[in-house]
Amino acid sequence: FDGLGIAYCDVVTYLPCYRNVLKEAARFGDKWSNRWAQEHSYAKILSELPDILEQHTICVNKAQFNNWQDYLKVFLAQGGIIEAYPPSDSVTSITVCLSIEPDGHHTIICSGDHLHAESQFSCWGLSFPQSSVEPHELNLYCSQIVEQCKQRNIYGYIDIDFVTFIDAKTDKQQVWIVDLSIGYSEHISLYRVMRFVTTGRFDPQTHSFTAKVKQAKRLRNWQGSAPEYNIVERNRYAVWSARLHHSNLSVLHYSVFFQMCRAHGVGFDIREKQGSVFTLLECDRHENIGMITIGDTLQNTLSNFAYNLNAINQEITTASMKGRSNFILAINDIENILGITQENASNESTANATS
């Protein structure tokens, strides 16, 4: 659940017979899919794998599993899944949230790119809407999964997780489907809070979100009447997370918290449909908080989200703090994303200038 039961091992780096197996596969060609062709390589892998797993497996949740043997014991007792990790150093995770009605009709509710703080296998938030894969391609995969769900009498809310990366061999984008979560998720909940405060609309065909805002008409100097407004549609982006935690929040009254936010200019502009809103959790989880930041571009929204976290973190973090917080980890992840987006934008500008 949420990456807590994941352990990984880089077999490409550590498995001694890996390259020989690749040569065997190339030698057999189309016949490699036959079991008899794989027997020798299969036996070799089985003989080498236990030592490799013992020495080089890394558990994501180190508080739960200290070593491979502890993990293996639970894995064999409860069962699990063995998956291939995408062969790339740059992997983007995506979630698409949808609902399947009793009549079989399905609706895509929202989509977003994962943001990571604790580990690359744990999603602490989304940038909405997703911008990593062509919407038509994602929608096609979702339709195929919906058909499989209906055959198994699965209806209601569903989250589908994808990963995408560039295949080094073909230099083309690959999309893998890696997870299916059944039930009403925090992403759907936060999206509906965002939709409520913006009165906006998500287009599932283009994976874009628009909100109607008032735009003042230009008045001549001699006109002294009240300004008139045009209603225009503008794209809006969001970054949200319900998993922000900071131990010192538990001793901070919400009235003081919001005064602090106002002092740093953290708020929501109803007319522009931009800014930040917070979701507050029950008293026994006071150290946790949710935040939704909405903006006119993805870069601005990410920057504002990081600014908010940094401002709150500086106000409530003390030198003697002994608790835990993921604020800095979240800020670092956003700054890495901003660096990548700026680099991509720079490369696109260079390419356009060259062409």
UniProtKB/TrEMBL annotation:
InterPro entries listed in its UniProt record: ATP-grasp_IQCH (IPR056855), IQCH (IPR038752)
Signal peptide region: none
Classification via Pfam families: ATP-grasp_IQCH
Limits of the IQCH-like ATP-grasp domain: 1-203
Coiled coil regions, renumbered to chain: none
Protein's name according to its UniProt entry: IQCH-like ATP-grasp domain-containing protein
Organism listed in the record: Rotaria sordida
